[in-house]
Amino acid sequence: MEATHPTTVSDCDPAQRATTRELCRGLWASVPVLLGFIPFALVLGAQATQKGMSAVAVPVMTGLNFGGGSEFTAIRLWSSPPHLLLIASMSLLVNSRHLLMGAALEPYLRHVPQGRALASLFFMCDESWAMALADAKRRASINLSMAYFMGVSIGLYLTWVVFTAMGAMLGPLIGDLERYGFDMAFTAVFLVLLRGMWRGRVACRPWFVSLVVAALTYCLMPTGAWYVAAGALAGLCSAALMAPKEGK
């Protein structure tokens, strides 16, 4: 008997069709954020070339690191020759928030094999983390939709790498992109994410504690990125202290 093979998505098994749907749902949901990525990806690429990085080095950096905050910090610290230990230390400090973000996702990833979960978390950024977590809560599910998460992440990752490379190529031709206000897109994207995760003043008190501590740290220690670690630790401690007590 001649074997038959699926030729279209509709011929595939239900699990594969469901995965494809979730992947497309995540990719579609990422479009508004993806559009917000473009301006500050161009700014980063342009700033990198102004500091002497080549147009090839920029997408290599953004592809291997995929952490916008740490990359902006690395560019500000970039010199010739670069102080690699300082840049690596500050990148580690800025990206340390991913430890907390990963810990928050862990209860939603227990259905995923460990190796697959760790590999997929390479693509985790603030936006994909917030969107995937919000999606799980919206569906009232204890499991994260990995296909949805990867759909969001792939769109954001490719956009970031491609447009930082374009910024590196176009930056020398069009000058300082910050004068057009492109860097405000970074703030705008985060405000939209916070709006989607808002659960009232009481639930969001740790946010305000984190914000105040980070702002004070920045005023007192403007050099470096200590305000990131201070804000993250303050938010974590305040969340633990303000959490509702379980009944005995």
UniProtKB/TrEMBL annotation:
Tell me where the transmembrane regions lie: 27-46, 146-174, 180-197, 202-218
* Keywords on record: Cell membrane, Membrane, Transmembrane, Transmembrane helix, Transport
Matching Pfam families: AzlC
Question: Membrane topology type, per the record?
Answer: Multi-pass membrane protein
- Cell location: Cell membrane
Question: Which family is this sequence assigned to?
Answer: Belongs to the AzlC family.
Q: Which PANTHER family match?
A: INNER MEMBRANE PROTEIN YGAZ
Q: Know the name of this protein? A: AzlC family ABC transporter permease
Say which species the protein is native to: Comamonas resistens
